[in-house]
Amino acid sequence: MLLLAAVASAAFAVAIVALGDDARLGCALNAPVDPAYQAELVGPIDLERTSYQVAITRDGKPIEGAKVCATLAMTGMEAMGVSDAAAETAPGTYEVQISFQMSGRWEGNILIAASGERPVEVPLKIVVS
Ligand SMILES: [Cu+2]
Questions:
Q1: pLDDT tens digits for range 89-128
Q2: What pLDDT digit, counting tens, does each position of 76-85 carry?
Q3: pTM for this prediction
Q4: Which domains does the chain have, with CATH numbers?
Q5: Ligand 1 centre and the CA of 103: distance in Å?
Q6: How far is CA 50 from CA 38, 53, 87, 96, 102, in A?
Q7: Cα(80) to centroid of ligand 1, in Å?
């Protein structure tokens, strides 16, 4: 049991590192939800934009130096998915290059691997206008 957990954890770390080089791999990795973490797309969410800042906090404090990956799909239309590994642009703020193809409801998660912490997911539901 312990060994399995260690192997899964190692695979996860490798996958996250790989994302930095090729965001097309997506971040379809399962991590537990931890309510201490928050993730929010900053600013209006619409069809015009091609990048977003994601503010990442834990217990309200910005998390610096984390690996972050966003995956979202239109609700009820899994094929209409977007995913990108994020790059930190300011302390606790990460930029993802994604553009939504259709207005309406989208959902997914932000995967966060803070330095020295086990990866977690923050579920996200948004409305694209
Ligand atoms: Cu759609």
A1: 999 999 999 999 999 999 999 999 999 999 999 999 999 9
A2: 998 899 999 9
A3: 0.78
A4: 2-128 (2.60.40.1940)
A5: 7
A6: 22, 11, 14, 8, 13
A7: 6
